[in-house]
Structure formats: C-alpha cells, structure tokens
Predict the structure of Acetyltransferase.
Amino acid sequence: MKTQKERMLAEELYMADDQELAKDCKRSRQLTRLFNQTTEEQQEYRQELLKQLFQQTGEKIYIEPPFRCDYGSNTVIGENFYANFDCVILDVAKVTIGKNVMFGPRVGIYTPGHPIDPGVRVRGLEFGTSVTLGDNVWVGANTTINPGVAIGSNVVIGSGSVVTRDIPDDVVAAGNPCRVLRKITKEDTAYWEKLEQEYHKDFES
C-alpha cells in the first residue's frame, strides 16, 4: 500500500494530515523562516539555505525574501534563476523550472487541487498536478500559475496573468485566463539587439 507521500507525488488523492508529510513541511517552514530572516550581508548563507530547501538548483539562484513554499523538496530549478519579492511555490506535486527564468514580484506557482465535490473535499482528500516552465521565461508581477500547466521556452507572461492552460514556446501571453497574444519574432530580436548595441556604444565613447 502506498504512503500518503507516495500518493501525493504520484498525483493521486491523498490525505495531507500525515506524519511524514508534516515532518517534510516542518523542514520547509524552518528553512524558509531562516531564509526570510537573513540580511543583505548574508548572500552566501541565503544560497546555502536555498540549496538545502530545493530538490535541485543551478549554481546561480537568487530569491528576494520573503519567500514561501510547501516542501521545496519537490521543486527543481535550473541555472540563473531570479524571483522578486513575495514569490510562492506550493509544490505538493513536482515543479520544474528551466534555466534563465525570471519572476516579477508576487508570482505564485500552485500545484495543489481539491475535489469539486464538497463532501469529499471536506473529508480532507486532496491532490496535486505538476507545473513545468521551460528555459528563458519571464513571468510578470502578480501572475498566478495554476496546477497542471506547462509553459514553454522563450516565453513572456504579462503581469497579472492567470495561467490556466499550457503556453507554447516563443510567445507573449497575458490575461485572465492567460492567452497567447503574439509570437516572438526575428523583428523583436533585431529591435532589442540594436538597443543593446547602442547601450554598449554609450560606454565605449
């Protein structure tokens, strides 16, 4: 018979009122409390705490306190990750974040779900579905990423979005519910590379 933790990680119905899960949750609360109490002079200690908290990270990870998560141990984060203030990751199911991903303030990733039927819900059963973000994703402030969503690579999510369905690669998407507004094109690349060149010229002159 599966444990409640095994059921949770398999994205099946489970009971959160479980000793093993409570122990894992307590560990997460302790690490995030220590992290949120750090000062600007304790950057190395912050890195150490984050690497203890998450299942896996890249070498370069920066999160602005305060930060909250359920477990941390179910979250994998790629190289060069940045999250601004008030980030929340509820990872009862697996959360996978690619490399070069940026979060604006108050971005939330939510994997938990609860039964629609009120009777089953009140009796305490719940479940989670995984969330995946590809590489080179920029998520604007106050965005909510709902359970089961996959966001592709090279994507910009506009601020205030509520992402309820998958988003493909190479697009700008925004809204509630979040929808694709347009493709990211070669013209975008040319425009921003031109501005980048002008930026460098200012420092060379």
Q: What stands out?
A: The CA atoms of residues 144 and 189 lie 27 Å apart. The chain has one domain: 4-204. The chain has a mean pLDDT of 97.
